[in-house]
Write a structure and sequence with these properties.
This protein folds into 2 domains: about 260 residues, Rossmann fold; about 110 residues, Up-down Bundle (phosphoenolpyruvate carboxylase, domain 3). Helix content is about 50%, strand content about 10%. The protein has a 7-stranded parallel beta sheet, with helices on both faces. Helix 5 links the parallel strand 3 and strand 4. It is globular, with a radius of gyration of 23 Å. The N and C termini lie far apart (about 65 Å). Belongs to the DEAD box helicase family. DEAH subfamily. FANCM sub-subfamily. Pfam families: ResIII (PF04851). It comes from Vigna mungo. Its main location: nucleus.
């Protein structure tokens, strides 16, 4: 296979998204048939497309111009060793919203890069977003996109740093491949800065975090409310030990296919090597410690109330997490008609809502610092959260 010139853009009047989706499905079937006859890696042609991003006044909702010729093929790199499981997972992820659960070091980065590159080819005006909660993960993906699959650097931008909203707004208009934090993505979608009508592919790293009100969930909810027809690829090394937890991630991210491999699966065993893990603990600064203590002071009486009425059993409020609270809340809902009939349902749901939000902000503070926690708290205050907390604590 060879890459095709992405400049052959279909006219607005002729474009039909459903027809384009059907065409890609047909291509998928053709690729599957071809795979049965033998897999083939394809070199990457690194020519940079130069489309102009123009508003479509007649159809302002979406701008999904598909390169019909490019969409007949998908490209896999020859400059890396071929691993069957990576090839197979990539093919699935191109045509279904997929949750990829692979142990660390088995190549989730490559899978994401290949999916991003092919959507870059297929949709010459489309925008592709890679979201990750930490800068090292983002930098790893940027390197793979540039050096392995050859996405041109002039089309990409790293927006994980302290870029101002006006600067980000300019990049959303002029770039095509974006590397962002979940918080930046959620904020820009909510504010309208992110041009959602151009989005064709969203890659979510550390997807197991997509629980409750985490930024991933909020961002996807807003996209689906529009709705935006885009491909979602979710990546994780730790999908969760409970079926309920995994299902919550699948539901929150609108996943239709799960690709799971463990270190003992036959197709990955030969690539698993002994490794040494060193845990480095970073101590919070004095200001962060002081703020964290105030959060704990606010959390303690709410946990005490839930403990007193039997909803939480012998829990140390200092060790609870948003994930645990979601599980406890679900257990409460199931027990309500049995041994908790004396409990006021609305009050307990209110306690859980406040606690989950406070613990989430607390986690932002301990993992990412004061600014992300402050921004989330500020947003909640603007939503009238203060009066609600006063009511709960009264």
């Amino acid at each position: 296979m060879t890459s095709n010139n992405p400049l052959d853009i279909m006219d607005d009047e002729e474009f039909d998204w459903e027809a384009a989706a059907r065409e890609i499905d047909v291509v998928c079937e053709m690729a599957s048939d071809a795979q049965g006859k033998g897999k083939q890696q394809t070199g990457l042609k690194k020519e940079s497309p130069t489309p102009q991003f123009e508003e479509d006044d007649e159809n302002p909702t979406f701008v999904h111009h598909i390169d019909a010729e490019a969409a007949k093929t998908w490209i896999y790199p020859v400059n890396v060793p071929l691993r069957d499981y990576q090839f197979d997972i990539t093919q699935s992820a191109l045509f279904s919203n997929t949750l990829v659960a692979l142990p660390t070091g088995l190549g989730k980065t490559l899978i994401a890069a290949v999916v991003m590159y092919n959507y870059f080819r297929w949709f010459p005006q489309g925008k592709i977003v890679f979201a990750a909660p930490s800068r090292p993960l983002v930098m790893q993906q940027i390197e793979a996109c540039h050096n392995i699959v050859g996405i041109p650097q002039e089309w990409t931008v790293d927006m994980t740093g302290q870029l101002s909203p006006p600067k980000r707004a300019q990049f959303w208009k002029t770039k095509r491949v974006f590397f962002v934090t979940p918080q930046v993505l959620e904020k820009d979608i909510h504010s309208g800065t992110c041009l959602v009508k151009y989005l064709v592919c969203l890659v979510i790293d550390e997807a197991h975090r997509a629980m409750g009100n985490y930024a991933y969930c909020e961002a996807v909810r807003e996209l689906m409310a529009v709705p935006v027809p885009l491909r979602i690829l979710a990546l994780t090394a730790t999908p969760g030990s409970k079926q309920q937890t995994v299902q919550a991630v699948i539901d929150n991210l609108h996943i239709s296919r799960l690709e799971y491999r463990s270190e003992t699966d036959p197709d990955v065993m030969s690539y698993v090597h002994n490794r040494k893990i060193e845990l480095i603990q970073v101590v919070m600064g004095p200001e962060a410690v002081e703020i964290n203590n105030k959060f704990m002071e606010a959390i303690r009486p709410i946990v005490a109330r839930l403990t007193n009425i039997g909803v939480i059993q012998n829990r140390d409020y200092r060790t609870l997490s948003p994930c645990q609270l979601l599980e406890i809340r679900e257990s409460f809902r199931q027990r309500l008609r049995q041994d908790l009939s004396h409990v006021n349902y609305e009050d307990v749901e209110g306690y859980f809502g406040v606690l989950i939000t406070l613990y989430y902000i607390h986690k932002l503070l301990s993992s990412h610092g004061i600014r992300p926690a402050y921004e989330m708290l500020e947003r909640k205050l603007k939503q009238g959260y203060t009066s609600y907390v006063h009511y709960i604590l009264s």
